[in-house]
Hints:
The chain is an alpha+beta fold. The protein has three domains: 4-103, Rossmann fold, CATH 3.40.50.20; 132-201, ATP-grasp fold, A domain (Dna Ligase, domain 1); 207-462, ATP-grasp fold, B domain (D-amino Acid Aminotransferase, Chain A, domain 1, 2-Layer Sandwich), CATH 3.30.470. Helices cover 34% and strands 25% of the residues. It has an eight-stranded antiparallel β-sheet, sandwiched between helices. Strands 3-2-1-4-5 form a five-stranded parallel β-sheet, sandwiched between helices. A three-stranded antiparallel β-sheet has the order 7-6-8, with helices on one face. Helix 13 crosses helix 15 (440-454). The longest helix is centred in the middle third of the chain and has 17 residues, at 249-265.
Amino acid sequence: MLKKVLVANRGEIALRIIRECKDNNIETVSVYSTEDKESLHVLMANKSVCIGPPSPNESYLNKEALIQVALATGCDSIHPGFGFLSESADFSQMCEDNNIIFIGPKADVIDKMGNKSEARRTMIEAGVPVVKGSEGTVNCVLDAKNIAKDIGLPILIKASAGGGGRGMRIVREEEDIEKLFFEAKSEAEAAFGDGSLYIEKLIENPKHIEVQVLADNHGNIIHLGERNCSIQRKNQKLLEEAPAFCLSNSTKDNLYEAAVMAARSANYRGAGTIEFVVDEKENFYFIEMNTRIQVEHPVTEMITGVNIVKEQLRIASNLPISVKQEEVKMEGYAIECRICAENPSENFRPSPGTIEFLHLPCGNDVRVETGVYNGCNISPYYDSMIAKIIVHDSTRIKAVRKMRRALEEMVVRGIDTNIALQHVILYNKEFLRGHYNTSFMDSQLEDMLKLLNTAKDIRELEM
């Protein structure tokens, strides 16, 4: 096994990795910005090193400084977590150049799958279904117009690099193609330093379904089932569940086969996620691959019993995956709610500040992953997510009831959060029926906010 891991991240994912390393007798080194000097991941690691000032560009994204810390502290590996440098091909290559194991795929794989037009081409060659669109990048407006004529409107103009909805435009009218093409290009250049674009046919209101895969250095590739991540706001996920409700078993089996095929065609190693859109007729199409562990990995762990972070450590240690495909059993239902420091009633205004009082839920099959505590400061410099609540039960409705109870039990004072909104979602009829897709928040948010603003306490919603 690995001997010493540098954890190149912060917050709950850094703690998750540190705890797993300790459970496997692996030493850890955490890095932190001056803003995070009192964070739990600083206290939990065997050693902690200040990496720079609060700005991520000067701390958690400082590749050279991270490599120097790893070498100076004798780390044989670096775990990037999610976000920050987790999908940086350059950082993976820098690790390899310095004889440091990057706990993730090789640089060429990250580069190939991180560039969405290149990933699309790879999937086409592998026979994985993809949405109709350009075969590679689209370099001019004339080409964009010709592709739109060929596949039909509406289309999506998308940045080849990056994600999170930036560098993306929906085109419904031909006369808008030129304007939106240059808007997307400018935004992509500003956000990712890469203005290259590609085009896909827009699948209206699909389900966002992803399949978790693991691949080792011994030719083993397995899937751990699917997650439904369709409840999103501005392409940011709010709630995830596994398995996907209201999806046929035959479609699921086909998704699993396609995901494993995709990972094999990419020569993938490590934990990864193949993301698909699924239309109302259950036709599915590859959209991208995340070459890292994801925020929502706990829902998969809860229904399979497979410890994904532990498997990452095994794979990085050149050991085989500890379970075979036939040994993976998906039991019950799991739901994850992301708790964020924001005010939904004020257009999701961020709410940094000090947590004056905190009480976390607990109970049978209730899991909370967080890096916050009573008196801690929520910084404006980083992502607004402060915790994840994950529950598991034998049926979906039991899992829903358990999550409602967990949200009622959670108390955060001193800052605003989206706890009450998550609670309202769990009473929404469309959600309860499983009849929701990526348009759920757009169609339901106004009514949910009205309900939210009339209740003095989220427990009143039970009435």
